[in-house]
Amino acid sequence: MSIASFSKTIVAAALVFSAIGATASFAGEALPETCVVNGDKFSEHNNPPVKVSHEGESISVCCKKCARKFEKSPEKYIKAYREELAKEGKSKAQAAK
Ligand SMILES: [Zn+2]
Question: Ligand 1: distance of its center to the CA of 65 in Å?
């Protein structure tokens, strides 16, 4: 293998890794700026968001109280979270135009 083709392989591998990294952070980070449990904006809270997870999906809620509520009915809040993500995705796509 020549040095040129070797470095091309490295670049390709780096691209694949960065793509995976972007996907992982998209799935792991809570994109909505509001708590799915009580609708509070994270920015209006003094405390950092609390991470909760359900079936491998992790989301952030605004406080420990909400985390406890989330744990009581995760399906409900995960659904709300997904709807919120879909909404944000749409509004971001519109803003980009
Ligand atoms: Zn809260």
Answer: 6
